[in-house]
Structure prediction request, 305 residues.
Amino acid sequence: MKAALLILLGAAFAFAQSEKPYVLGPGDQLSIQVTNVEEYTGKAVRIDDGGGLILPLIGRVTAAGSTVADLTTTLTERLAKYVVKPEVTITITERRTLPVTISGAVKTPGVLNVSPGKTLFEVLAMAGGIQQDAGYRIHLTRRVSSGPIPLASAREDATGENFTADISLKGLEDGSSAENVTILPNDFIAVPRAQVVWVIGDMKRTGGFALAEGQTVSVLEAIAMAEGPLRTAELSKASIQRVGADDKRTVIHVDLDKIMKQKAPDVQLQAKDILIVPGSGAHSVLDKTLAAIVTIGSGAIIRLY
Prediction:
């Protein structure tokens, strides 16, 4: 799933580069040449904070908000008053960067300096991609002064200063163009970590199962997600390790054999619970797996769409 997302991120980057003309803004540096006009020799000029350039012969020109093609047309028209058939060539020598903050279950969270026009796909890729324990939704926060988020889920927060929107991770994986919004300066992208329950031991499928927001599972449901026990599983010796309020783990013994035969009530699991189903001769492997989960949260995270 993560490999597929990274492929889509790369594809989205290529698409964005080919389809979206770059819009100039304050901080961009340009090289402007005009054939046979010695005042324009390709010396670098930078768009000022007001969005303009001061150029020979024609004075101040507004550049922010234009593409290179737009600005070329503007300069050609303005210079035509002084030069016969001016041939203008504009090259972007340095693009400005804009701050975007990304937090949560990405490989390199923090403040990223990104070029204008980057999409959510591209910014996630710049942050190293989504981690295994990411949840099912991405939360985007944008200042009201920057304009609305173009999604149906977008809402103004209680302060009235920000728009917020929830974006489906599955939508991004599917390459949904509506979900893949353009990121603006000072946007805040949060990738919450999923609530996970673990199933280890003599089961057909072991690992961490990522729960959707508000989702709960019982022991029987966890067994079903793990595709059932192996023939060597000692069902009557199963247990749940649970984290308490003091961060200490307690052990709850459960008789899976009786639960599966409906001779004992099902048990509801909580986030971070570890359901352990031992098998004959598997104790050393279980101990190592459990230690890894408890200390660093390692193991495969399985998503249930």
Notes: The mean pLDDT is 84. The chain has three domains: 29-94, 97-191, 195-303. The domain at 97-191 is CATH 3.10.560.10 (Outer membrane lipoprotein wza fold like).
